[in-house]
Amino acid sequence: MREVHVKEITEAVAKLCQEANYFLGEDVVKALQKGLQEEPSPVGKDVFRQLLENARLARDEEVPLCQDTGTAVLFIDLGQEVLLTGGDFNEAVNEGVRQGYLRGFLRSSIVSDPLERVNTKDNTPAVIHLRLIPGDKIKITMAPKGGGSENMSAVRMLTPAQGVKGLTDFVVETVSGAGANPCPPVVVGVGLGGNFEKVAFLAKKALLRPLGEPHPQAFYADLEKELLERINRSGIGPQGFGGRFTALAVHLETAPCHIAGMPAAVNLNCHAARHAQRVL
Amino acid sequence: MEAKRIRAPLTDSDVKKLQAGDTVLVSGVIYTARDSAHKRLVERLAKGETLPVDLTGQILYYVGPAPAKPGQAIGSAGPTTSGRMDPYTPALLEYGVKAVIGKGSRSPEVRKAFQDFQGVYLAATGGAGALLAKKILAAEIVAYPELGPEAIRRLTVEDFPVTVINDIYGKDLYEEGRKNYVIY
Asked: What is the pTM of this model?
């Protein structure tokens, strides 16, 4: 067993909260530059110009790309040969979020109760997806998720007979119905299979993949391409002002599922597919 | 396209000049308000009470800014989704608010209210919070400090870039723009 003090987790999470919110990935910057070159709409082009300038400012001045610094979503792969010492794992993660958000001048966007709606003032608690894996390492991925695009996301329990058409119609309808709300150009995470709760997780996980990297299976890679083309025929365009770039990428993740079902989920993200990772 | 310039607070004649699709640079004083502040403001109006700040002729900006770093007037400050304010907007337009800044589409009721009460809906670029914060020269909390990011702030802005979505003539840029680029 390798011993790891939980304060190392706290420190890593605190840093990742800031990195993810300040630094837009090069993959996204490249996609925005492509949009700037290829978008035919003049107002659409101007949106790409603003987003690129925004990313540059955020990076240079170490300020958040967006005021919505998100729900802190943490994917943690914990090696089963790691022995955590020195305290409560969940509390260590939340302490990292607390320190990262308060010291990093990131917005506190969490209310303690969905109906009472009192702000917790430190952006805790985080949403933690913990997975046990072989080995003695801890891989931490922080993916802050904004509320505007999250609100436009959807789960639908499709049936096997609905097949590919059922899936593509659902994805295109969801993006099209969202219009300008999720801050297009969007990144579209699609989950397919699993069960009710698993499919939503898959859709979120799909957002972590670098933009432009296709699904490893050719069939799904083609389906991602087809979905992107159909979405970009909608005319919504950057910020919904009209144009050809409604989405920058569609990422699909699948899992085995029950003989009776074909669950599908669409998790929308604005252009800022924010994530940062560290291995302890 | 040449940007139009407006200075807040606005008059009816300022609003009449704005048309869906116009690029506009806003200068002057504007006020922030999002979900919780809207609820409180409209509850006060329903009871016939005065508002904590006079918003007649003013522009409301739907934003919950990030905290300011030392040396900054305000942290990142881009627009939030406007549709959540739909239940409250007609009452505020009737009261005298002249323009609102946000992003995303409005309900048919709100679009009608922009015509009925001579108001406009402006969109700022969602996701450009760091850039938009540069156009905000000063910020101070003027009501509901306990709401944190949702408190009402008075902002002094200079050349704050927006696009007109809904004008007083019933046009909607989201619909028009989409029609121009949709491929069936």
From this structure: 0.95
